[in-house]
């Protein structure tokens, strides 16, 4: 119906290319336009001005001989003031952009190791965008933004990288565990040392109290019983304690036990001498 009345409608965010007898005439903006076909005018085609996106997947090899698939996302649009160039100069815009992306990625990635590719993906995207901007501006297109959205190594390489990462994390965990065990052992040793020190102090005080008690007993007995020497009293006290100890051993034992003690004529004197010498040596060591 529009052709019958020589009218053409151009939608929003689009432009129309008007020709006169096959020769470019003008660019028609959105709205209704008079196109007298009877005088050789016609609409050669329409061109969208909307932002478009093209995802390009490129396989290449890194400097350390790892094959990766790099996916670049190109956002572009035609320029209204260069609509004629965008319409006439390129047959397939997407293929042209794809070729430039392949060229830049396959020139940039082989210079980098695999880890550097992940770290420098923004630099790769910027290199692709700069090259596309220079190339496509002469064709009437603007490159709005370029993103490297995915870097995918071979599945075997990816599995190996995961294993390396897992091994590194296990090594860190083992070091932390060993450090914690070291701290526990140090604290345990410090506690045992403190415990033994306090136990030794208690034993020393106990022995000192025994010696003090024996001394007081000897002095008191000598004063109350005339004619006895300190040695006689000491022998009697020590022998009495010795037999009390033997009795306690027999009474506290849950099973039948046999205790061998000297029974000769001088046995009591020998026992007293041995106990007295032992206590005196202990007292001299503490002093």
Q: Give the overall shape.
A: rod-shaped
Q: Average pLDDT, to the nearest integer?
A: 80
Q: Report Rg.
A: 52 Å
Helix content: 40-55%
First and last CA, distance: 128 Å
Beta-strand content bin:
15-25%
* Main sheet: strands, sense, barrel: 3 strands, antiparallel
List the total number of helices: 7
Keywords:
287 residues; 7 helices
Give the secondary structure arrangement, pairings included.
Blueprint: E1 7-10, E2 14-20, E3 23-28, E4 31-34, E5 41-48, E6 52-61, E7 67-78, H1 83-88, H2 93-108, H3 114-119, H4 121-136, E8 141-153, H5 155-224, H6 230-252, H7 267-286
Antiparallel strand pairs: 1-4, 2-3, 2-5, 6-7, 7-8
Helix pairs in contact: 2-4, 5-6, 5-7, 6-7
Descriptive notes:
The protein is of the alpha+beta class. Helix content is 55%, strand content 22%. It has seven helices and eight strands, in the order βββββββααααβααα. The chain has helices at residues 83-88, 93-108, 114-119, 121-136, 155-224, 230-252, 267-286; strands spanning 7-10, 14-20, 23-28, 31-34, 41-48, 52-61, 67-78, 141-153. The strands form three sheets. Strands 3-2-5 form a three-stranded antiparallel sheet. Strands 6-7-8 form a three-stranded antiparallel sheet. α2 (93-108) packs across α4 (121-136), α5 crosses α6 (230-252) and α5 (155-224) crosses α7.
């Amino acid at each position: 119906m529009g052709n019958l009345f020589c009218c053409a409608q151009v939608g929003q965010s689009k432009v129309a290319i008007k020709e006169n007898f096959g020769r470019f005439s003008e660019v028609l903006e959105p709205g209704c336009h008079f196109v007298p076909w009877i005088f050789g005018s016609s609409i050669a085609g329409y061109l969208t001005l909307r932002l478009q996106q093209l995802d390009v997947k490129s396989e290449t090899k890194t400097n350390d001989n790892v094959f990766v698939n790099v996916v670049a996302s190109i956002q572009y649009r035609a320029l209204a003031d260069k609509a004629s160039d965008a319409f006439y100069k390129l047959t397939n815009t997407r293929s042209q952009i794809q070729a430039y992306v392949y060229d830049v990625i396959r020139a940039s990635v082989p210079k980098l190791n695999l880890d550097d590719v992940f770290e420098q993906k923004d630099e790769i995207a910027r290199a692709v965008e700069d090259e596309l901007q220079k190339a496509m501006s002469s064709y009437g297109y603007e490159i709005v933004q370029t993103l490297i959205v995915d870097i995918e190594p071979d599945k075997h390489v990816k599995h190996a990288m995961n294993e390396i990462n897992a091994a590194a994390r296990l090594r860190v965990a083992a070091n932390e565990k060993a450090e914690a065990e070291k701290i526990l052992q140090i604290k345990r040793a410090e506690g045992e040392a403190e415990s033994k020190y306090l136990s030794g102090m208690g034993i020393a005080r106990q022995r000192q109290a025994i010696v003090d008690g024996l001394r007081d007993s000897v002095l008191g007995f000598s004063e109350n019983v005339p004619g006895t020497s300190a040695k006689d009293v000491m022998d009697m006290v020590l022998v009495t304690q010795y037999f009390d100890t033997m009795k306690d051993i027999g009474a506290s034992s849950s099973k039948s036990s046999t205790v061998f003690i000297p029974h000769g004529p001088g046995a009591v004197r020998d026992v007293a001498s041995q106990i007295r010498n032992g206590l005196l040596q202990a007292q001299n060591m503490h002093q």
